[in-house]
Specification:
alpha/beta, 2 domains, 10-stranded mixed β-sheet, 12 helices
């Protein structure tokens, strides 16, 4: 068999596996009916901001996150969970089940523009159609004007910032931005006192404790642990074992957020809903590592080596593992046995997963890139079929990557154009130290062809 025929067969096989994953999103499979919950569970989906691989206790014992560690210990750790390299793209992928590049270049980097049209089927509108009460407490950042806000996209209740990062006590976005005023409740600006992490948690706890007629979806996208970092002495003292000031400040923010996650879990326990509540926790992208300061409302100090993706290579806004592979877990003690899943999965998977779990049937194809990962989570399947993980960052596609099976290609654009593709075997080299592009040209070509197939599905830039 010549190389051309081999590659053709490989692409047919890859396409077949992709189709298997997507077929599962159309209706509730027999496997799912047997292994899923017996009634519609409450869903609490918590998203941290800029939390690196090395910035959670169960990866690094110096980081104090007892509540998240407990959720991982009594739940399923998702060891190879991918997201997009930055905040807005990850949120778009979560809410639509699609790679943000399918929607347009404006969704491929942090943006205050309207991400997708009103009427788009989002996770919230899908769950609402199934009888769920829906709420968001935290950072939206998929359209930073009221007319693009969460209540137009399926959320019954909305609180926090329409725009991105805010001053932790100031609650404004970038001071010179037209989106500076952003703190709201149900699309009405509000002035409140308190740390953003506490306020977001207060709102989530209050809403969870409200009596709901039917199941609920509580989405908590924290501003923490994104800069600017401002923390009380009690959190700093708990992290006094860090000699470096900047690292200690960041660790304090992580511990503070972890405490607030514990408050949310306690609210679920206190209302007797724990057995029927599925909790997911994921970081939206890898750690930023360094921060120039004076970007957000003061105090906004310059920080150096304050967060970490070690031992993974790369960071936020890059397509190396450190930018896109993040801490993640799912906890549902009445259904899931504790364990760890190493199969690759992506933030786009959660919408089709919930759809299958709950029996959602769309009236037309929604173009999901994700697949139902619940059978993998519930059965701890160690060797599921290979699947494609596709990554593009920034409107001009500064970073591009594709993983298929154990192998991954990645490249970045400079002023002179794209650098050559790099190839890594992540099973043997998860920290991307040994570029195999020169020694394995056939595997490189196979993945490049898969990449080109994915790229053809992306939205075309407006002329």
């Amino acid at each position: 068999m010549n190389n051309k025929t081999s590659r053709r067969n490989f692409l047919r096989y890859a396409a077949g596996i992709s189709a298997i994953g997507l077929v599962g999103t159309a209706s509730c499979s027999k496997t799912q009916q047997k292994t899923g919950p017996s009634k519609k569970p409450n869903i609490v989906f918590i998203l941290s901001d800029d939390q690196g691989w090395n910035d959670i206790g169960y990866h690094n014992s110096k980081i104090k996150t007892p509540h998240l560690d407990g959720l991982a210990r009594t739940g399923v750790e998702l060891d190879t969970h991918y997201v997009q390299p930055q905040c807005t793209p990850t949120r778009v992928a979560l809410m639509t089940g699609r790679y943000p590049s399918r929607i347009g270049p404006h969704c491929m980097h942090a943006s205050n523009d309207q991400a997708y049209p009103i009427g788009t089927v989002t996770m919230a509108t899908m769950l609402k159609s199934l009888g769920y009460k829906t709420a968001l407490s935290g950072k939206w950042h998929m359209g930073s004007k009221m007319k693009w806000g969460p209540k137009h996209h399926g959320f019954d209740h909305s609180y926090g910032s329409l725009a991105g990062a805010v001053g932790m006590y100031d609650h404004r976005y970038r001071p010179k931005s037209p989106y500076a005023k952003t703190w709201h409740r149900n699309h009405e600006f509000v002035e409140e006192e308190g740390h953003a992490t506490d306020l977001v948690t207060d709102e989530a706890v209050k809403w969870i404790k409200t009596e709901h007629d039917g199941p609920f979806f509580m989405y908590v996208p924290y501003h923490s642990v994104h800069t600017p970092l401002v923390e009380e002495d009690k959190w700093l003292k708990m992290n006094s074992h860090f000699a470096e000031h900047d690292r200690r400040l960041y660790a304090a923010a992580v511990t503070h957020m972890d405490h607030c996650v514990g408050r949310i879990v306690k609210a679920i326990d206190d209302t007797g809903q724990r057995d029927n509540t599925l909790i997911v926790f994921i970081s939206d992208n890898g750690a930023q590592v360094n921060h120039r300061g004076n970007t957000y409302p003061p105090p906004d100090p310059k920080l150096k080596n304050f967060s970490s993706n070690a031992p993974l290579r790369g960071q936020k806004t890059q397509a190396y593992e450190g930018g896109i592979r993040v801490p993640a877990l799912v906890n549902f003690p009445s259904v899931l046995k504790p364990g760890k899943v190493t199969a690759p999965m992506h933030i786009v998977d959660w919408m089709p997963t919930f759809a299958n779990m709950l029996g959602y049937k769309a009236s037309q194809s929604l173009g999901w890139d994700g697949m139902d990962i619940w059978p993998i989570i519930i059965s701890k399947i160690k060797n599921p079929p290979d699947r494609t993980i596709y990554t593009v960052w920034s409107g001009d596609r500064t970073w591009e990557a594709l993983r298929y099976g154990d192998f991954k290609i990645v490249r970045r654009k400079t002023k002179q154009g794209y650098k050559p593709w790099e190839l890594y075997n992540l099973a043997k080299d998860p920290n991307e130290k040994n570029d195999l592009a020169g020694s394995n040209p056939q595997k490189l070509q196979e993945l490049v062809e898969l990449f080109e197939l994915e790229k053809k599905k992306d939205a075309k830039p407006k002329s």
